[in-house]
Amino acid sequence: MESHNDAVKIIAAQVRAFNARKEPFRIYHGSTNCTRTSRRQRDQMVDISSLNHVLQVDTQANFALVEPNVSMDVLIEATLRHGLVPPVVMEFPGITAGGGFAGTAGESSSFRYGFFDRIVSWIEIVLATGEVETASTVLRSDLLYGAAAAFGTLGITTLLKIELKEAKTYVELSYFPVNSRSEALEKFKQIARDPAIDYVDGILFASNAGVVCSGRLTSEACGNVQGFARPSDPWFYLHAQKLVERSSNPTVESIPLVDYLFRYDRGAFWMGFYAFKYFLVPFNRIGRWVLDHFMHTRVMYHALHKSGLSTKYIIQDVVVPYVTAHDFYKYVDETLGFYPLWLCPVHQRGQSQQAPQGPLAEKPKPNDPEMLLNFGVWGPGPSNRRAFVETNRKLEHKIQELEGRKWLYAHTYNTEEEFWEMYDRKSYDALRAKYQAAYLPNIYEKVKVDVEGEEKGMRDSWVVYLLAFFWSIWPLGGLYGLYNATFGGDYLLTRDVWWNGVQQLKR
After folding, report:
1. pTM exceeding the 0.85 threshold for the entire prediction
2. Is the pLDDT of residue 28 over 70?
3. Is 347 exposed, middle or buried (0-12, 13-18, 19+ CB in 10 A)?
4. Alpha helix locations (H) across 171-312?
5. CB count in 10 Å sphere of residue 416
6. Which helix (H) or strand (E) holds 346?
């Protein structure tokens, strides 16, 4: 804690200096699982990249004290030593605890526990004034709930108390074939009523073919033990597709716990398929084995940023109420038409059902739905930039029409007026005023895509125009991203997959 407190003092001093000048700053984490690019220089940032330690795992009260840059794989490695695991674990090992708290995150246990921020019961935060405060469910709860999903626009979260629960060695996973989105939804409802189930999600491979996966923690293996961490292991979605194509009956397997939690790491769900397609590399078992290093999400995100290809792919996570899920699916199917689609049920409030929502939750409505359905909508967009922007804007309009919302880690094309129609700006601005954070960029300013600025830059500068033209030539952008993923940056230090073939749970 002494080292942590010293680091926080330095961060607080930097923030006080920005506050004295009323100069906005952004936060440098050292890495990102966000698809947006930063628009500020390093001298306009506060560096918190050293806050990457698990400071305590309390086995009596079942919680961990975690700095914000602790990645999911580091967190899991620390808690499993004590036979514990967070109730919600984001599916990519490089996603950080602070990122999940400040940026909205959910996973296959979210049907029971809600978003990741619902398992955070206390935070330490450097306010925009440079003061260091704490906030919990009972002390300054407005700050705790307000900071969730606020992308650092209330201050800098420097420590989080994360709830834990008992871990087991395996996840006994059942794969249920389904023939439609509506059948998948009914299966979700049925599974959610079983208190023994810990995890549930689904994949639609086509409009008439999909799978619902339900898992329960168990100490003993049942049937086939299947891993997903080694280069020779299958990618999870391909394996699931093969199982349901092979049999119309449910299949049950035992998956080592960490292999399950990070089952989508290799290939980033199925976005890795598009990398093979882009480089004209055969998408087969041998190709995936040879290129396995490049198909882990840490490396893929780095390449995505450097290549500029994030502006060519629609990468959106969307939640809509169960009652409008069919309409949203129909729109995606008819308008975008790409598969697979990820489906994941999410409980609005999780276990703390009485906990108030922060101002960046959806605007409250009469009879707010308890359950939401997350759609992972990821695939190639139109090659023409204007058409690409328009496709995203129409998608965002449909989300709003159906009373849903999207994760803001991705690009946001809404106008400012459209954006704030979805959220409670009055409460948000009041909270920022109360904690003197109004001089910081607000959340819309942090997540928006400045389309007009892009077009103006290309009109006003021939250098910008030529660079844009250069990156549009296949395969220059992709090769540059691949070069950087191979030889440059902090992603070169990608952690070994420590759960590959080792005992995961210390008895």
Report:
1. yes
2. yes
3. buried
4. 181-192, 236-246, 257-261, 271-278, 285-290, 297-307
5. 12
6. strand 341-347
